[in-house]
Amino acid sequence: xxxxxxxxxxxxxxxGNILTKSLAPGKRVYGEKIVRIGGKEYRVxxxxxxxxxxxxxxxxxxxxxxxxxxxxxxxxxxxxxxxHIADAMEEGVIFGVDVAPRVMPKLMxxxxxxxxILPILADANKPEEYQxxxxxxxxxxxxxxxxxxxxxxxxxxxxxxxxxxxxxGYAYYAVKARSIDVTKDPKEVFREQRKLLEExxxxxxxxxxxxxxxxxxxxxxxxxxxxxx
Length: 229
Prior knowledge:
Elements: E1 5-8, E2 11-14, E3 17-21, E4 34-37, E5 40-45, H1 51-57, E6 69-74, H2 80-89, E7 92-98, H3 104-113, E8 117-121, H4 131-135, E9 141-146, H5 153-164, E10 165-176, H6 177-180, H7 186-200, E11 203-209, E12 217-223
Parallel strand pairs: 6-7, 6-9, 7-8, 9-10
Antiparallel strand pairs: 1-2, 2-3, 3-5, 4-5, 10-12, 11-12
């Protein structure tokens, strides 16, 4: 019989599938498969529906989502990836920011069961709009996760890190090359964004091409500078 293989705290491999132990047994967020092992319920993390799931399948090594931690999730959408992060963290808070009103009803519903997620209707390019929420946990977060389709998506991450990311904190950044410049080779776009990130004070820990799960995307895992420059 297959056994659970621990990948990260709260994340397992089981027969080639990524699993997180559900915080809301009996509930699904996006039609994901449910697996019951040893009397516990696990959710299958679909890498075709989650860029972080894709990065795990492609060999992600760095995991900064700790139990009781704080996460600022920019571009949370309906909460697919955020719900798996919440499963893994078990405790803490995920500030789920999205600019689209249409996703909020579903996200609100998800947050009723995955209570770590706090839905916030706001523009990630205007981080002052959610200052009051971050102030409630001391004004800084341990991790920023960003999945925002915008030509200035790298500048958005830097702006939020400058304001909210703890010194030495981590960022997980899903870069969409075609959202930045459709005329350039995606590899050139990734090189340019990497340079911008490093100039801002990020250290690139990992750069993962997440094809075939997402075309023309990479996941950057970044460590923020220890002190303000």
